[in-house]
Each structure stands twice: as structure tokens, then as C-alpha cells.
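C-alpha cells incoming
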């Protein structure tokens, strides 16, 4: 049975009268969220240069949490490597060590004070990282298009496995800090951590929000549908898994009619797979 963190009454809210569906509760994993509103993780650059949470960062998130009136409120993405190659902007929060947990807890507590659901984002920035160091890391040396970004160093297999562990450890720190939802990591073939492995590491009570690997779209509509089917069936009963997209993926790279068709076919294939195989409870 889904757990209700906070009770809300929207009967006097003008927005609830105009958009009633937006203010209906929804079950996500073991949580009953009072509405369908989400404040997404944004770069507010208010944390210390050492990655620690600041008073201004806490105050900012407290105000943002007010705006979702009981919905989902996500803090900015945290970088997870001590070498800071995954750090994407100055003032980004860190989660590569247990010493950051007390500060992260202040953010979760501030969101909960406003009776909202607290979200925690994992974010290794890859090609757009390394803002404070000489080089970034990634699966290849393919550079970012903009010249302001640092040169890339291709990761070894051992470094890829280390990054997987960094995601697992950082997520556990977010849970310990009191966050209710963890987002977003990318499963294979972009990442190396499968949904099944993530679930085993983070537990059945953690809501996992994944970034769909849109490179799958280039394999065609049927392959995308099959991949989505396998993704859904890998995490039964399916009520604690959310599929998301990133603005940095295929959508950000639509340059012509071909890429537009690829994106539209891919998103259609995902919707078809969810319609056919995504009914809760999912039975593998």
C-alpha cells in the first residue's frame, strides 16, 4: 500500500479547479504523491566550491518546494567523483563521500518542511563536465561541440566499473539523507548499470527515475520497442520505475528530417511498449 507523506486539500486552489487532473494524487512506487507537479533539478550554483551545501542553497530549495504544493521537488544534480571530472558547473553539490550527507539532509529536510516529496539527482556531466579540472572523462574522446569544454580522456573498463559504484554509493547517501526519489541514471548501452542491478543495490522502496538511452532509437522502431519491453520486465512489479528523457539526447540533435523521424519513431515505440507491457503489476 502506498505511503502518504503529507496530506493536502486543493479545494480552494484556483489551479485545481482549472486543471483538476494535475492536482489528482498519483502512486509512484511506495509513495502517494498528492499531485502531478514536479520541480526539476536545475543549476542554481549556490553551493560551496568544495561541493558542500550552503545556507543560501537550502533557502533556495525551501522556496522552490513551496511552489510544488505537495508535489515532487528535486535538488540540483550531484557529482560523484572526488577527481571532479564529472562536475558540470561551478557551485555544484557533491556526493562522493559520506561527509556530504549532513548537508544533503538539510536540503531534504527543507523540502519536507514544505510538505513536498524530496528528489535527489545523480549527475556525472561527461563531455560537459570537468569545469574545475584539466580534462573530462567518458566512454570515448569525442569532444563537445562548444570550445569552452575541456578535452576528454577515454575511460578504461576499470574506470567505468568505478563510475557504476560511484552511482550506487551516491544514491545510498541520498537515501540516508532522507530523499524520497532518486533520478536519473542511464542504463546500458550508454551506462553500465542495469535496472536490475540498480534495484538490488538501492532496494525495493527506492523510486528509480532513469534516463532512456536514446541511442537505441537509431536501431529502429522495433528494436526500441523490444528494448523498452525488456526494460519494463526487468523491474517487476513496475510501480517504482519511471522512464524519462533528457534534453541533451536526440531531441537536442534534431538537425534534419531524418533525425526528426528517428526521434518520433523512437518515442512512439516507447509509448507502444508501455501500453502493451507496462500495466501494473508487471509480471515478467
Amino acid at each position: 500500500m502506498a505511503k502518504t507523506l503529507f496530506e493536502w486539500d486543493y479545494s480552494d486552489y484556483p489551479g485545481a479547479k482549472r486543471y483538476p487532473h494535475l492536482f489528482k494524487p498519483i502512486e509512484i512506487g511506495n509513495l502517494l504523491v498528492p499531485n502531478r507537479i514536479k520541480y526539476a533539478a536545475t543549476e542554481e550554483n549556490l553551493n560551496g566550491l568544495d561541493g558542500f551545501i550552503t545556507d543560501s542553497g537550502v533557502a533556495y530549495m525551501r522556496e522552490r518546494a513551496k511552489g510544488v504544493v505537495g508535489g515532487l521537488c528535486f535538488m540540483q544534480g550531484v557529482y560523484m567523483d572526488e577527481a571532479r571530472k564529472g562536475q558540470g558547473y561551478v557551485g555544484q553539490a557533491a556526493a562522493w563521500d559520506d561527509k556530504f550527507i549532513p548537508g544533503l539532509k538539510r536540503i531534504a529536510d527543507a523540502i519536507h518542511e514544505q510538505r513536498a516529496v524530496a528528489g535527489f539527482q545523480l549527475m556525472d556531466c561527461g563531455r560537459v563536465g570537468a569545469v574545475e579540472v584539466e580534462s573530462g572523462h567518458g566512454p570515448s574522446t569525442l569532444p563537445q561541440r562548444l570550445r569552452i569544454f575541456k578535452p576528454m580522456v577515454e575511460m578504461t573498463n576499470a574506470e567505468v566499473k568505478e563510475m557504476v559504484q560511484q552511482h550506487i554509493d551516491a544514491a545510498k547517501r541520498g537515501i540516508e539523507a532522507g530523499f524520497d526519489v532518486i533520478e536519473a541514471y542511464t542504463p546500458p548501452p550508454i551506462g553500465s548499470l542495469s535496472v536490475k542491478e540498480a534495484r538490488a543495490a538501492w532496494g525495493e522502496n527506492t523510486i528509480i527515475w532513469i534516463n532512456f538511452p536514446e541511442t537505441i532509437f537509431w536501431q529502429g522502431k522495433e528494436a526500441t520497442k523490444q528494448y523498452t519491453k525488456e526494460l519494463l520486465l526487468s523491474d517487476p512489479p513496475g510501480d517504482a520505475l519511471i522512464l524519462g528523457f533528457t534534453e541533451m539526447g536526440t531531441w537536442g540533435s534534431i538537425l534534419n528530417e531524418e533525425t526528426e523521424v528517428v526521434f518520433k519513431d523512437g518515442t512512439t515505440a516507447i509509448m507502444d511498449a508501455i501500453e502493451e507491457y507496462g500495466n501494473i503489476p508487471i509480471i515478467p
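note: The two ends are 21 Å apart (CA to CA).
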